[in-house]
Amino acid sequence: RRAEFAAMRDLPARTRDDLRIELMVNAGLRDDMAALDVTGADGIGLFRTEFQFLVSATLPQRERQLRLYRDVLDAAGDRPVIFRTVDIGGDKALPYLKAGDDADEENPALGWRAIRLGLERDALMKVQARALIEAAAGRTLNVMFPMVSEPWEFEEAVALFDAQRKWIHDHGRGVPNAIRYGTMLEVPALAESLDMLLPRLDFLSIGTNDLTQFLFAADRANPKLAERYDWLSPAILRFIGRVTRQTRAAGVPIGVCGEMGGRPLEAMALIGLGIDRLSITPAAVGPVKAMIRSLDAKALREAMDGFLGRPLRTLRGDLAAWAESNGV
Ligand code: PEP
Ligand code: MG
């Protein structure tokens, strides 16, 4: 089917009933940018900036970060790129970044990582903010924060970026035409204060990898649990459906950037819940686009309510049967 997927490269990700799905790819290194042209994706929905830190023996200085971000924006051209600030710490520990004597954490996924580390070690975050802002001079900068659990973390991160923007501007250097701020939703607690955060957000992106492990209290790296909790479990689908309705009602764009969206049946379920932006691994673009182009989204959205009314266990069987009998 590879030739069939390649032939779809220039065809839009549009359902049979004319719903346009924004199909973006996840990236993290310069070389990943080639995937945009290979897949015909609409942009980079998640650029994991920590990759540069993870492959580096020393802390990447501002100049090196800036060069990477500028190259990425140049490669993307007029397609959007969403840069996620570093998600390091915890299990993605860096030898050159020590937390202190108590660096060893019993539950690193629940630990001192991502925005938690960024706001405390704010010198690191300021350097990254300046690199991103300078790299995007004269363009739009999309910034997204990882592991936000409460609205104040988002507010502080935005304030830090705005202060750096002002500093750079005051020193006569170019700044972005606009900075759009968004957050990942991967810590379930954030959903409980979403109403307070939505008026401040330019976009929201659901990270289903961490969200699933936190919702089910099940380590995403533990193979013993890999088969046990399914992305098509009612708890996850109901959660995502509720957040999606609430976010869309507030007029805020919402997408999914976890691995869930890269599997055709899971991606179908997400569209059934109202999601119209997916950011996925490049190899999944062909299969997911083929699914989208064979789907009647309105019919699926109607069927979805019925499936979610019987929340006993995974809806995989129901959704697969629906796909089969509806020619998806
Ligand atoms: C996620 O948690 O779903 C996500 C996209 O981020 P990462 O996989 O980098 O933790
Ligand atoms: Mg995550």
Automatic annotation (TrEMBL):
Q: Which cellular compartments is it found in?
A: Cytoplasm
The entry sums up its family as follows: Belongs to the PEP-utilizing enzyme family.
Protein name per UniProt:
phosphoenolpyruvate--protein phosphotransferase
Q: Which organism is it from?
A: Rhizorhabdus wittichii (strain DSM 6014 / CCUG 31198 / JCM 15750 / NBRC 105917 / EY 4224 / RW1) (Sphingomonas wittichii)
Q: What range of the intact protein is shown?
A: 429 to 756 of 759
